[in-house]
Design goal:
single chain, 82 residues
């Protein structure tokens, strides 16, 4: 099952090929929404240079940096929702 929906032009090309075009790609909108949410969070985490370049080589410090960045993202989200 595909997570990303089929493009309109690809669907038209497949239909033009008739029975040789294969079956249409099934799409699950809930998976797509969840995937988008995860990708946006990863991009927000990577926007912080310390996490992207991984200056801290020790796993504990890197995990602490991820927690710190996650807390900052969460707090900013709370401020915007009020």
């Amino acid at each position: 099952m595909a997570v990303i929906p089929e493009k309109i032009d690809q669907a038209a090309h497949r239909k033009k090929k008739s029975h040789r075009g294969g079956r249409p790609v099934s799409h699950d909108a809930e998976f797509y929404r969840d995937r988008n949410t995860v990708e946006r969070l990863i991009n927000k985490l990577k926007a912080w240079r310390g996490v992207t370049t991984r200056y801290d080589k020790a796993p504990e410090s890197y995990l602490a940096a991820l927690h710190l960045r996650g807390a900052v993202i969460w707090l900013r989200g709370l401020r915007r929702s009020n």
